[in-house]
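R.M. (postdoc): so does anyone remember the format we settled on? I'll just put the structure tokens first.
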């Protein structure tokens, strides 16, 4: 099986965290640094794909292959990470495709999607006022996705799992106070990121693809991966544990490891269960935003 993984610029390490305001109503949410890092999940999707022997070829498409050389992947994965392309055993399954800016059309993309499922992590939800570089380089969720959609349709590829966010396009799937807080951020500090993610979602909805839009509630760089994830039943205080095949009362936990988020994306790309819809995903119920 072939998998294509796309990632963007990711969280900027020189100014970590989504926003730093000391005196605010929800300090634990802010200090936990859980609302950035969508593109960082894309790097972890490569690792998640390598965990699956059934995936024999992983094509990575990115503007930033050098980000795989970073020693800090903004996570708390045991042992950290090194560039998987430098591992001879892993490298035999990997292919790197470096593209120019997604702001410009990239020729010849379709050939990379032939016979492939796709995991796309091109967006971000960090505030542009604090990260001016993201205004120039990071707002590519729509520009990249429209080209991915066209290439997939040309290649007759069907399945794509794309990372987005809670609280965009009217989303109210997570019945937790942080949903209102995220909506507030998206109409203030993160307006451009919201507009970019919403345009991306509409592009998938208007396509012919078998898409899944994944809404992580919180992605914590300090969280140790547990190889588990939990699905929120939209708008209800019900949580589905896909590993135990049970549904329990509650809401998904708000602080999830980037690798566990990536594992859900890859699992759904390889073995689809949710079609042409969105899904909110999080940690075990009861996990605090700061925990």
């Amino acid at each position: 099986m072939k998998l294509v993984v796309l990632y963007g610029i990711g969280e900027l390490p020189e100014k970590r965290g989504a926003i730093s305001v000391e005196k605010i109503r929800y300090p634990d949410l802010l200090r936990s640094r859980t609302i950035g890092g969508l593109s960082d999940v894309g790097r972890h999707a490569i690792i998640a794909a390598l965990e699956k022997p059934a995936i024999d070829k992983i094509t990575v498409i990115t503007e930033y292959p050098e980000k795989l050389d970073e020693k800090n992947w903004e996570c708390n994965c045991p042992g950290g990470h090194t560039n998987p392309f430098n591992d001879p055993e892993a490298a035999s399954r990997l292919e790197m495709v470096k593209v120019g800016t997604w702001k410009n059309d990239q020729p010849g993309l379709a050939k990379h999607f032939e016979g492939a499922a796709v995991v796309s992590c091109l967006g971000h939800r960090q505030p542009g006022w604090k990260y001016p570089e993201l205004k120039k380089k990071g707002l590519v969720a729509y520009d990249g996705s429209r080209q991915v959609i066209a290439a997939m349709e040309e290649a007759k590829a069907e399945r794509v799992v794309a990372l987005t966010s809670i609280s965009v396009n009217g989303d109210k799937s997570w019945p937790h106070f942080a949903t209102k807080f995220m909506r507030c951020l998206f109409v203030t500090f993160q307006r451009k990121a919201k507009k970019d993610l919403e345009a991306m979602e509409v592009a998938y909805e208007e396509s012919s693809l078998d898409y899944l839009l994944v809404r992580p509630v919180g992605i914590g760089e300090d969280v140790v991966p547990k190889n588990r994830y939990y699905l929120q039943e939209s708008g209800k205080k019900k949580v589905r544990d896909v590993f135990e095949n049970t549904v329990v009362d509650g809401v998904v936990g708000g602080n999830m490891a980037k690798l566990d988020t990536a594992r859900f994306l890859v699992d759904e790309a390889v073995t689809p269960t949710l079609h042409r819809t969105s899904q909110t995903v999080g940690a075990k119920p009861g996990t605090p935003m700061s925990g």
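R.M.: ...and that's the designed sequence above, right after the tokens. Also worth knowing: Strands lie at 2-7, 57-62, 94-98, 116-121, 159-163, 210-216, 230-232, 238-241, 246-249, 277-282. The CA atoms of residues 114 and 156 lie 7 Å apart.
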